[in-house]
Design brief:
E1-E2 ATPase; eight-stranded mixed sheet; transmembrane helix; Calcium-transporting ATPase, transmembrane domain; 840 residues; 21 strands; seven-stranded antiparallel sheet; 29 helices; ATP hydrolysis activity; 52% helix; transmembrane; alpha/beta
Length: 840
């Protein structure tokens, strides 16, 4: 088994042993992949010759090609199947069939809502899929392989096991490999989370997904395709349970599950009673049963949630934020702990020069130049370094940063340029009368390093990467320095903190969201960067290497803010511990090393510039990798959830009324008094249309309480009022021998009156739009009743019915008012009792 730098033994075992995969889908996919391959002979070719054509064909035929595993995304067919074949849709399909069988086609008015709800979900998820498929995991579609003694460019998928591949600066490692010759410096931050560049020499292992930042090497491919490190994590991400992360949607699903079970016996009882005991026709029995069942299901609330979330997703798309799952916006709005990485989230991915500090011991070297130019030492040094940077090629991020910062230079002409190598750790320029070197302090100063060690470590402890610029009195030949190097200046580099980071983190602090910085870098460095970004309590840091057990990790995540040297397995432990402590956790990441933690977080956010595995595993993708978009996502979530929560009580009024009235009808042996088309009319103008407009109103309040509890308690008084009014109307109507069609119309108008009373309360505080919505909804209902009476089963009422209607209409207001006060008083008593018992 191969040990990999930057990963602990447990991580390696997890990735290399099939038995460590606790998800059966991962195991099955690995076994399936292995069964497809035949036996293979391993080769260790000379790096100058590579494999022969016969050996390449042999490995390819046996199935040992570098074909990547499929990313963890759904197919269009799976998306359609998931949105169409739901229990929710099954109920309405059965009801539609029953209505068609009895010829009651006008009562199919509920179908457009169901179809729209399904299409919105499909369109949004397919759109997200299409965008994500444009993002690729390995941005190295081609590689240079040595075959039959000659280097040739081939597609990365055509590489086979034991191929010799030439990697140089700028290349991404496309499969796990072992260095056979040469030396490179690689960045494994997408895999291990550590931003440090790691030197790889002969015999060292290269990890798929890492980047070569300097040098060149020949490497033999050791693991290809699904065997590679990056593929193992991709399979783990693919097995991620989609689940329902949204508390609001979970509540709606619980409601539908309860109603879905309850409506079956209630529906059967209503049909049997109406058909056999009340002597109604089959058509009348089916129609009244469908009306009762439709009234019990919050189909419009699903549509409202889908439309509101879709509108939010379009708004966020304009800000380059992609919602992989629309429901994730609500979860993010409820988050109280946000876990972020340093590189790519707090800081830019690029390196930048922070300071130039002249070295006191080297001032003599600049005195002469100062006298000639009349300028200070820092200016003179800046131009010297500018000369060196100008002479070098931009083959790594460090040199690019130097070129950007040190733009001024002199007319000095270099005689010889010695580029940076990972072996010597320096670059140098020789002029006619002098020579300068730049590089790592230990390699430039050598035996003099101890003299400057304390000063250098002081800067390193503040989160800087320190380079030494020195004058050199020997020959620079590309080998280790043997002459005397006199330090002239320290150059302090760092990943710059994103410009909007302090403002972004200040927003989360104001909103009561705790930020945890989890990184693979040095904890002191991460702490300093977090302080610069304005993260609260950033001085509280810990080295995760000392956290040996899960208990240690759980205790630390509650105590500290900054975590350094964190392994992928520990990131997952931290997320799980926070969830167990009762927090709603969001995790941001861009690397393959983040996938396991992203999988377990309540809401996962990925940077599009990172690995495809992380992007596919996440619910929210920042397409421009700009973390400053996060407050906009949270605000959108709050607007949607708070407004839907306000509007949802309108829907639940109908559900409570239909459920209780159905029980009332069964208990008192009466036929359900309403038709499906009448339920649709009431739902359209007292619930659906106004709720849609109200859900798009601005709302930045913090989300409080449980969704279903909040909505139910707001809807209960109106639901009870409807049941009392309509139930009494039916009883009195039968007593005075009023026609059932008259009672049906009167009941529809009674429900409309209570609905508009509730809508008026929901619209508080009133503004121009809310007034227009309220008045417009009443006008719409009246218009449909007058001009489309047959479609919505609205008929004229007898004098007796009108008198009953007027009496019960007047009675609805005080009944609703006193029931609202009663429910509010009971809720207050309950809260006080809970507070007394829990002490919270």
């Amino acid at each position: 088994m191969l040990m990999r730098p930057g990963l602990c033994k447990e991580d390696i075992m997890f990735l290399r042993r099939k038995s460590d995969h606790d998800d059966i889908k991962v195991q099955e996919e690995i076994y399936e992949y292995e069964e497809e391959r035949g036996p293979v002979t391993r080769y260790e070719p000379d790096y100058r010759d590579g494999l022969t054509g016969r050996q390449v064909k042999e490995h390819a035929a046996a199935g040992y090609r570098n074909v990547p595993v499929d990313p963890p995304s759904q197919t269009v067919g799976e998306i359609v199947h998931e949105n169409v074949f739901t229990y929710f849709n099954l109920i309405f399909a059965v009801l539609a069939v029953l209505l068609c069988l009895v010829g009651s086609f006008r009562n199919l008015t509920f179908l457009p809502v169901i179809i729209a709800n399904t299409l919105i979900g499909i369109v949004q998820e397919v759109r997200a899929k299409n965008i994500l498929e444009k993002l690729t995991m390995l941005n190295a579609p081609q590689a240079v392989a040595v075959r039959d003694g000659k280097p040739s460019t081939v597609g990365s998928e055509e590489l086979v096991l034991d191929d010799i591949v030439i990697f140089k600066a700028g290349n991404q490692i496309c499969a796990d490999a072992v260095v056979a010759a040469g030396e490179v410096q690689v960045n494994e931050s997408l895999l291990t989370g550590e931003a440090d560049e790691i030197t790889k020499k002969k015999g060292d292992h290269l990890m798929s997904g890492s980047f070569v930042v300097a040098g060149q090497c020949h490497a033999r491919l050791e693991y290809v395709g699904a065997d590679s490190y990056i593929s193992k994590l991709t399979l783990e991400a693919k097995a991620m349970q989609k689940g329902e992360q949204s508390e609001m949607m979970r509540s709606l699903n619980k409601l539908v599950k309860f109603i879905g079970i309850a409506l079956i016996p209630i529906g059967i009882a209503l049909v049997v009673q109406s058909l056999f005991f009340n002597d109604e026709t089959l058509r009348s029995s089916i129609t009244s049963m469908v009306a009762a069942v439709i009234g019990m299901i919050p189909e419009g609330l699903y549509l409202l949630a889908s439309v509101a979330l879709a509108v939010s997703s379009m708004r966020l798309a304009k800000q380059k934020v992609l919602l992989h799952d629309m429901k994730s916006i609500e979860t993010l709005a409820r988050v109280d702990v946000l876990c972020v990485d340093k590189t790519g989230t707090i800081t830019e991915n690029s390196m930048s020069v922070k300071k130039l500090i002249p070295v006191t011991a080297g001032e003599k070297k600049t005195e002469e130049a100062e006298k000639n130019t009349g300028e200070d030492a820092e200016t003179v040094l800046s131009r010297m370094i500018g000369d060196l940077a100008l002479a070098m090629s931009s083959d790594n991020s460090t040199m690019e940063a130097l070129k950007v910062y040190f733009k001024e230079h002199t007319d000095a002409k270099p005689v010889k340029v010695t580029p940076f190598t990972s072996k010597t750790k320096y670059s140098g320029v020789t002029y006619e009368d002098k020579a300068h070197v730049l590089g790592a302090p230990e390699f430039i100063l050598r035996e003099d390093y101890e003299t400057y060690k304390d000063e250098i470590q002081q800067y390193a402890g503040k989160g800087y990467r320190v380079l030494v610029f020195a004058g050199y009195d020997g020959e620079i030949d590309g080998n280790e320095l043997t002459g005397k190097a006199e330090p002239l200046a320290y150059i302090l580099l760092a990943n710059p903190v994103r410009k909007n980071a302090p403002e972004t983190f200040a927003y989360f602090a104001e909103q009561g969201v705790e930020v945890k910085v989890i990184s693979g870098d040095n904890p002191l460095t991460v702490s300093e960067v977090a302080k610069e970004a304005g993260i609260k309590n950033a001085e509280n840091y810990v080295d995760a290497a000392v956290l040996a057990t899960e208990e240690d990790a759980a205790e630390a995540i509650a105590k500290y803010t900054v975590f350094g040297r964190v392994t992928p397995a520990q990131k997952r432990q931290f997320v799980q511990a926070l969830k167990e402590q009762g927090h709603t956790v969001a995790m941001t990441g861009d690397g393959v090393n983040d996938v396991l933690a992203l999988k377990d977080a309540d809401c996962s956010v990925a940077m599009a510039s990172g690995s495809d595995a992380a992007v596919q595993a996440s619910q929210v993708v920042l397409l421009e990798s700009d973390f400053s978009c996060m407050p906009s996502v949270v605000l959108e979530g709050r607007r949607v959830v708070n407004n839907i929560q306000r509007s949802a009580s309108l829907f639940l009024v109908k559900n409570i009324f239909s459920f209780l009235l159905s029980l009332f009808a069964v208990a008192f042996m009466i036929t359900y008094p309403l038709e499906p088309s009448q339920i649709s009319l009431i739902s359209m103008f007292t619930i659906g249309i106004p709720a849609f407009f109200l859900a798009l109103q601005p709302n930045q309040e913090v989300i409080k309480g449980h969704f279903l509890t909040n909505v139910f308690l707001k809807a209960l008084p109106a639901g009870l009022t409807d049941v009392l009014a309509v139930g009494a109307l039916v009883v009195f109507g039968r007593t005075f021998d009023v026609s059932p069609t008259d009672i049906s119309t009167a009941a529809t108008m009674l429900l409309a009156i209570v609905g508009f009373m509730i809508l008026f309360k929901i619209c508080q505080p009133l503004n121009t739009l809310r007034i227009i919505v309220w008045i417009g909804s009443m006008a719409g209902l009246l218009a449909c009743s007058i001009f489309l009476p047959d479609l919505f089963a609205i008929t004229g009422m007898s004098v007796e019915c009108i008198m009953l209607f007027v009496v019960f209409s007047i009675a609805t207001e005080p009944v609703l008012r006193y029931l609202t006060l009663l429910v509010g008083r009971l809720r207050l008593i309950y809260r006080k009792r809970v507070k007394k018992e829990t002490g919270l």
